[in-house]
Design brief:
Helix content: 25-40%
Oligomer: single chain
Structural class: alpha/beta
Number of strands: 18
Order of helices and strands: EHEHEHEHEHEEEEHEEHEEEHEEHEEHHH
Length: 369
């Protein structure tokens, strides 16, 4: 019997993966252990569901070696514990030290556990490891109320062609060869450093590591925020008629993100857990790609079709730190290496979130603590 350890198991992604694994594999074939420090508002709501699914739960903090010493005997770790906000560690947000201790030191603690157990690791990383300056300098056009990538890059008179980087980007999105040079945000840097260390540990101590740079994960039950889980946040806020605002990019709402359902991510991880040989690319983008990409304006149109106009939707050209106009991941490499591609459409994801919102009318208050 294989044993799977999931960090951050009470978060949206960790709990979704744990429950999906249990739906797929009986307890006789797969033992699932999860831990969480329950620091995020609402995280405790997932404990009963996990226990009912025969997921062994530990109240533990990924930053604490003492907490983790009580957990042993596992074959694989899914590292889903993180502060996932691009604004984390900056003014008005959580401490930069807490961010680094959670995202980087926490991963190191798990890698040390993998070293002792000779267990494999699946590291959930992010699209935010890609260079902000290069993303913001991409030549974009507007089509159907959304930014789209213009294949021919516009060059200002004072610039040389060599100054404009288009490596690793196409109409399909940003691939793994796109620049990861600074700035990427403190959050992005913490995940990029975790990626590098995970591979170094794998090489030094001979255990498998797979790294998935995920698009915006979205689905029912997510505690969405404007800076993390924006699709869920927008849909819940629209249904509850909470204030909404287009920020930056002249208040157009044209900024674009791709989305990915955790069940599609599960399918990728399930394949990775059955391969210990490190004879292919360790790092892949995992996303719905250009087919799943939607702007806030397009998402608003979807919400309006379902619930009618929003009474207080406003706009502002104030620029939010670390925001980019177009972030779409190209997952062609994952398709090549793992024979994987996302299957759940954005409309299906939005409908799932909306149905959940209708049956949980006070979800935003719960997620705010």
């Amino acid at each position: 019997m294989k044993t799977l350890l999931i960090s951050g198991v009470c978060g949206f992604v960790g709990s979704s993966l744990a429950l999906r694994f249990r739906e797929t594999y009986p307890s006789s074939d797969l033992k699932i252990i999860g831990f969480d420090n329950l620091s995020r508002p609402g995280a405790w709501t997932n404990i009963d569901r996990l226990k009912q699914a025969d997921v062994q739960f530990h109240h533990a903090d990924v930053r604490s070696v003492t907490d983790l010493s009580a957990i042993s005997d596992f074959d694989w770790v899914i590292d889903a514990a993180a502060n996932p906000s691009v604004l984390a560690g900056t003014a008005g947000q959580s401490s930069s030290r807490v961010l680094m201790e959670t995202n980087l030191v926490g991963t190191i603690n798990l890698l040390e556990m993998c070293k002792r157990q000779q267990a494999g690791m699946i590291l959930l990383s992010t699209s935010r490891v890609y260079c902000l300056e290069d993303l913001c300098s991409l030549s974009l056009e507007v089509d159907d109320n959304a930014f789209v990538y213009a294949a021919k890059q516009a060059i200002a008179p004072e610039m040389k062609l060599s100054d404009v980087s288009t490596k690793g980007v196409s109409k399909k999105g940003v691939d793994e060869s796109f620049s990861t040079r600074p700035p990427v945000s403190l959050y992005g840097a913490s995940k990029l450093a975790s990626e590098q260390l995970a591979i170094e540990y794998s090489l030094a101590f001979d255990f498998p590591v797979w790294i998935n740079r995920c698009g915006v994960l979205a689905g029912a039950g997510q505690f969405g925020k404007p800076d993390q889980g924006v699709f869920a946040f927008w849909i819940h806020s629209w249904r509850e008629q909470k204030p909404l605002r287009y920020i930056g990019f002249e208040g157009s709402g044209f900024q674009v993100r791709d989305c990915l359902h955790p069940h599609d991510l599960f399918r990728l991880i399930d394949r990775q857990l059955n391969r210990r040989e490190q004879d292919c690319q360790r790092i892949v983008n995992a996303s719905g790609g250009i087919d799943s990409a939607r702007s806030l304006k397009q998402l608003s149109r979807w919400c309006e079709d379902r619930w009618g106009k929003h009474p207080t939707l406003t706009s502002s050209d104030d620029q939010r730190p670390f925001d980019v106009p177009w972030m779409v991941l190209d997952s062609t490499l994952a398709e090549s290496v793992w024979d994987w591609r996302a299957e759940i459409s954005p409309d299906s994801i939005f409908d799932e979130i909306a149905s959940f919102a209708e049956s949980h009318p006070d979800w935003l208050e719960l997620s705010a603590g």
